[in-house]
Design a protein that fits this description.
The structure holds 2 protein chains of 2 kinds. Chain A has 10 helices and 12 strands. By secondary structure, chain A is an alpha/beta fold. In chain A, helix 4 crosses helix 5 and helix 5 runs parallel beside helix 6. The longest helix of chain A is centred in the middle third of the chain and has 18 residues. Chain A starts with 7 loop residues before the first strand and ends in a 19-residue tail after the last strand. Chain B is an alpha/beta fold. Helix content of chain B is about 35%, strand content about 25%. Chain B has 12 helices and 12 strands. Chain B has an 8-stranded mixed β-sheet, sandwiched between helices. A 4-stranded antiparallel β-sheet of chain B has the order 2-1-4-5, with helices on one face. In chain B, a hairpin with a 2-residue loop joins strand 1 and strand 2. Classes of the chains: A alpha/beta, B alpha/beta. At the A-B interface, helix 5, helix 6, helix 7, helix 8 and helix 9 of A face helix 8, helix 9, helix 10 and helix 11 of B.
């Protein structure tokens, strides 16, 4: 795969989102949940970046910080314009967000709760364009029809309500709404995990076709590595609020440098009954983000942990120009036993 | 080997205000001792209703309208479908001979009782022993499911445990009376992949230790490939293909099974290629298609046959059945001609 021009679109620098834990009648703050702790990420123009991790790792919190549903505790979220200028979405006052919200749209996980049941498709998909006074009347109608067709729905259905559509079709409606404003970045938050298996492939193909045609940039959030492998060029792996590894997709699966990535990889059951392993790559539970372990957050579950890991938090280390891992032993461990099993027929 | 459970021509209907839903239609299969049978299907295919029908806990307004479920104990068949739904016979079987675990462990446990008390209750109910020996058994079973520090866990309430731990507690409760058959309804769907791997491994080990059969209900074919001995593929209430797990993955016959297998993204395999998707979506159960239920989405659809004829279950090979006219001699000549004409 050839790399697209590497102009940054969104640059997240040392993002922190800590939620206070309040106790007692006085609402005293007794601690913090470090949902996102020092995350740095760059999404380039036209790139599909995957953000993977297990539930509670903070991946959705990152996306909510980007659209400013949360005001980050610290850090920068730089949105670049075409000329190379940037604005810090983490710091600008709420009313000034309006023009930038247009550039960043979201596709949600649950197509049943993300569409207003009292609005027709015309209203749902037309609303963002009316809000930004892009078009109205006949022109709006035409644009809605065009958007419906481009996500594989029929334009004559625009007077219907969401309940008339199946889960997969509703997800298409959500995608049409996200495309309405020609956004520069689309955040897909688990867009297929609530869908039936036979419908997932349709939606993944649609997202990929749209990306290929219009060069959208996606931040693709998922817990399913095989879905990420299918759609993303580059992947960031998150664990308890921190990015632990970033690499090009093929590299990440072939040659993971962080033990967590390797474990995640080998936990996916293979579609081959002759290759039965039922491995248990990780014992124990994900660390509590309110009470993170000292040193490396992954050390209590890591089979390679040494004394150093219990005391000293590792920094992100580059093992090659496009491959980074947050591990003291990045580039030194033999994770091949845990990585990609023999390709299945 | 003798069967442990036999399901024959089971039909479950839901009479709703909008119309009749045939949730399970003419389903037959059997489970042998110690065997793992997977029921695979997407939402609305009737897999969970079917499992509940075995234990006679189909939620209202669902009703078993036809068919039999036979459970074999000491060489004697007990017809579960003939028992009274709330009677003592079926209640003696539920939780003792046949236990069930669910997708949502949070919904299985009562939030106001401790884990220990809830597992004790099941043991006392079925074994009629005193509190102290029940607690000893509870600690033992919690230990076996790999629960850290069981003596502390028994005093905890469900909300104080993580999803994986609760799933272990639920498995412990289900196994506390040493069932012959464990019905597992999507037991790992709500869990993360690494926790899923732990739970699958645990079930696998416990199955060997207790020599129990498992009826594994799931939508996830990759879990099936790692776990099942036999597979029943369901679509809109019918079993469309039934075979052993190796054949299912290497020589699937029904177009639905084939399409489903092709549409699943796999890591490493075919990176950069488009997925083969299945057209359309699962029909509303109130508006079932005529003829073959899968015909509107099928890539082998033959007009004049598939939209008119309800396909019969055809024996493809020993232990391999598929519900498709492609394998029906009565139609196969016509079908191959039609294919040739195109």
């Amino acid at each position: 795969m050839t790399m697209p021009e590497q102009k940054p679109l969104l640059e997240i620098k040392n993002l922190k989102m800590h939620f206070p834990i309040k106790r007692g009648v006085m609402g005293r703050t007794v601690g913090h949940i470090k949902a996102v702790d020092d995350v740095s990420l760059t999404i380039h123009q036209g790139e599909v970046l995957g953000l993977v991790g297990e539930s509670g790792c903070g991946k959705s919190t990152v996306s909510r910080c980007i659209v400013r549903a949360y005001k980050p505790t610290a850090g920068k979220i730089l949105l670049y314009d075409d000329a190379g200028g940037a604005v810090d979405l983490a710091r600008i006052p709420e009313p000034d967000m309006l023009p930038y919200r247009r550039d960043i749209q979201m596709i949600f996980q649950d197509p049943f709760s993300s569409l207003n049941p009292r609005m027709t498709l015309r209203q749902i998909i037309g609303e963002p364009m009316r809000n930004y006074q892009i078009c109205r009347g006949k022109a709006l109608e035409e644009r809605v029809a065009y958007l419906l067709e481009s996500v594989g729905l029929r334009s004559e259905h625009m007077s219907r309500y969401p309940h008339a559509f199946s889960g997969g079709q509703r997800q298409r409606i959500g995608i049409a709404r996200a495309l309405a404003l020609n956004p520069r970045l689309i955040i897909c938050d688990e867009p297929v995990s609530a869908l039936d298996v036979s419908v997932q492939a349709q939606i993944l193909n649609l997202l990929r076709d749209l990306q290929a045609e219009f060069r959208y940039s996606y931040l693709f959030i998922a817990h399913d590595l095989s879905v990420v492998d299918y759609i993303c060029e580059r992947v960031a792996v998150m664990y308890v609020g921190k990015i632990v590894e970033t690499a090009d997709t093929a590299t990440l699966f072939k040659d993971p440098q962080h033990p967590y990535t390797a474990a995640l990889r080998s936990a996916i059951p293979q579609l081959n009954p002759r290759l039965r392993q039922l491995p248990v790559p990780l014992e124990g539970d994900v660390a509590d983000p309110a009470n993170t372990p000292a040193g490396c957050v992954f050390h209590p579950r890591c089979r390679f942990a040494e004394d150093r890991c219990r005391h000293e938090a590792p920094a992100m280390t580059a093992t090659s120009p496009r491959h980074h891992a947050r591990c003291h032993f990045a580039g030194e461990l033999n994770l091949s036993g845990l990585s990609e099993p023999a390709a299945t027929a | 080997m003798e069967p442990l459970l036999e399901v024959k021509n089971l039909q479950v209907h839901f009479a709703t205000d909008e119309g009749l839903i045939e949730a399970v239609r003419d389903v037959s299969f059997e489970i042998k001792r110690g065997e793992t049978v997977a029921i695979v299907g997407e939402s609305g295919c009737g897999k969970s209703v079917m499992a509940r029908a075995i234990l006679r806990i189909v939620p209202a307004p669902g009703r078993i309208v036809e068919g039999q479920v036979n459970y074999y104990r000491d060489g004697r068949a007990i017809e579960l479908t003939a028992l009274e739904e709330k009677g003592p016979e079926i209640r003696a079987i539920r939780g003792a001979d046949i236990a069930m675990i669910f997708q949502e462990p949070m919904a299985t446990f009562s939030p106001v009782h401790t884990i220990g008390n809830q597992i004790n209750e099941a043991i006392i109910l079925h074994q009629g022993i005193n509190q102290a020996s029940a607690t000893a058994q509870t600690l033992d079973i919690l230990n076996r499911v790999g629960m850290p520090r069981p003596s502390r866990i028994i005093h905890r309430y469900p909300h104080q445990l993580s999803g994986g731990m609760l799933q272990r507690a639920m498995i412990a409760m289900a196994l506390s009376c040493r069932p012959q058959l464990l019905i597992a309804d999507e037991p790992t769907t709500a869990l993360d992949v690494t926790t899923q791997a732990q739970i699958l491994r645990l079930l696998y080990d416990l199955q060997r230790e207790f020599n129990m059969a498992i009826l594994f209900i799931t939508h996830d074919l990759s879990v099936v490939s790692q776990f099942a001995d036999r597979v029943e593929v369901m679509y809109l209430g019918e079993v469309v293909e039934s075979t052993d797990v190796i054949t299912l993955f290497e020589d699937p016959k029904h177009p639905y099974t084939r399409a489903l297998l092709n549409s699943i993204p796999q890591t490493g395999a075919g990176r950069g290629q488009r997925l083969q998707s299945i057209a359309g979506s699962i029909p509303n159960p109130l508006h079932r298609p005529s003829g073959c239920l899968f015909h509107p989405r099928c890539d082998s659809f033959q007009p004049g046959i598939c939209d008119l004829v309800s396909p019969k279950e055809i024996d493809i090979d020993r232990g391999h059945r598929a519900r498709c006219v492609l394998y029906d001699e009565q139609f196969s000549a016509k079908v191959s001609n039609a294919t040739f004409d195109q």
